[in-house]
Amino acid sequence: MMTSVDTDLIRVLADPLRLRIVTLLARETLCTTHLVEETGARQTNLSNHLRVLREAGVVETEPCGRFTYYRLKPEAIEGLAGRFAALAATARTAAGSKRACP
C-alpha cells in the first residue's frame, strides 16, 4: 500500500526538471553550475528544485569551497521502486481475480 510519504515523493519526482536532475545525479555528483549547464534552467529555478529534492530526502549536499555538490540518495529511489514492484507483483497475482457485480 502506498503511504503519504510515497505519494509526496511521487509528486516531487513528477516535475520534469526535478526528474531530469535526479537522472543526472544518478550518474555523478554535480554542483549547481554543472546542473545549470546540463539542464539549461536558470540558477534560481534550479536551486528551488534542488531545495525541494533535498527536503524530500532525495538528494544530499556536500559543500566544497564556494560550491555545493549534490548527490542522489539511492535508498530514497529504491524504497519507492520497491513499492511499485510490490504493486506489480500483486497485479500479476490478481490477474485472474474478478469481483462479481451484485
Outline the structure in words.
The chain is α+β, with helices and mostly antiparallel strands. It has 5 helices and 3 strands; from the N terminus they run H-H-E-H-H-E-E-H. It has helices spanning 4-14, 16-27, 32-39, 43-55, 74-93, and strands at residues 30-31, 59-64, 67-72. It has a 3-stranded antiparallel beta sheet with strand order 1-3-2. Strand 2 and strand 3 (67-72) form a beta hairpin. The protein is elongated and about 65 Å long.
* Element-by-element helix/strand order: HHEHHEEH
- Globally, the shape reads elongated
**Total number of helical segments?**
5
- Main beta-sheet strand count, sense and barrel state: 3 strands, antiparallel
Mean pLDDT: 92
Give the termini separation: 26 Å
Helix/strand/pairing category:
alpha+beta
Outline the fold blueprint.
Blueprint lengths: L3 H11 L1 H12 L2 E2 H8 L3 H13 L3 E6 L2 E6 L1 H20 L9
Antiparallel strand pairs: 1-3, 2-3
